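May I ask for an example protein's residues together with how it folds?

___
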Amino acid sequence: MTHQHQSTSSSVSSVRQLRVCPAKGIAAVAVAILAAVAMTGIASAASRATKQTPIMAGTTAPRSSTSGQSSATGGGTMEVWDWETAADEPGEHVVLEDNLKIWNKEHPKDIISETEMSLPDQLAKLPLALSTPSSAPTITQVNEGYESMGRLVADGELLPLNSYNKKYGWEKETGLSPVQLNSFNAKGSELGVGNIYGIPTSGALIGVFYNKKILASVGAKPPTTWAEMVKDFALVKKAGQVPIAYSSGQPTAYRPERVWTVILDHYALPQLTIGIVDHKPGATIETKAVIESAATFQQWGKDGYFTPGYSGLSDTAGLTQFTSGKAAFFIEGNWYASAIITGLGSNAGFWEPPSTTGGPDEGWSIPKYSNDPSLAVDFINLVLSPQAQTHELKVGDIPLVAPTAKELAGAPLLVQQVVKGWQEVVRNNTLVPFIDWATPDFINQFYANLQALQAGRMSPSAFAATMESDYVSGGG
């Protein structure tokens, strides 16, 4: 989640239908390019779309059509598939809701049907659904990496977007790196080259949220180093409070993976994960850094740093514990910022470790059997428009079209911390790709192995060996 960034909430899909009357070595190269994007503050969306009044959360504003290819005739249906659920992606959920309303105003004769689904649903449903004209949606979000996009490209189920990218200048708006990370060769066997198959709209990274009030109450300070954070865990635990809001039950947002990857990023150089995801010769998971990170992850559980009974708690339960002020830390993706601001307000803070996992959020892709690619193109143009990108910032997400200094200064402090954290890691070339992009089924194998590790059924060295075996058998 991408996006990823890989987040999910519920295995139950929800569907809404709306009709309105008129009135998120290529990885190393990509990270370096993204740093340049963050430094220069690209805002070229304005060159295509007319100037608009920024929209606020929960509102809409009129805007002129960016492509106008479909609205002239109308009478069609656009089916949108996404995973922007309110529980898991609260900020993106609000942005998407408003974008759908705006799109409807521009296409009054068309009907739009939206289906939300979890990541497991997406991974299971897309390959079959996209294989026939009768079941493919008009447009869908697709997770980057081999687990989803690579598989769909290999099966010939996505349209290359190169010609649209050239016509509308999407790459100039998002920056080169996010587009490269949504590109594959025609066989789906090499990430970051060949055709473009997805257009992301926001950035995603894993970091450490903290509750300022709880830390102050136990004599701790907001962390600025790894050692300080771990010391804070111990102080919070000694005071009889919960150090880390955590859950690993069902439905899952793959929270165990988020926590473990933050630990791995502490022990390993970015090149380790980059090599694994890029399938570089000699890349291996069975390393000292992976074993050390597994041991630390396991030890945090033994030390009582995680929420009691975490194995039976859902993703939402873990989030709620933190937003209700019952835990000091929450190690997760920036996409939870909106919910955290709502719950904790100015008591919430965010620390970005020097090296961290992140990348573009899941991109928007057009299936080969899309009933109307021009409608899908209209929608991509909309979500990259200045007003939509400003809205991303207002709800706590990281817009790929970099905000101006004035826009950033007007955002909540927590959001400023998140965006500055993103800019810092890309500037320092320490943004690490999500490791589960490595093979088609790696995310599920990864999750199962972490569960076994945490339950004491697997040693850290066995965890590393099993992950290596899964990686090799999966095509790594």
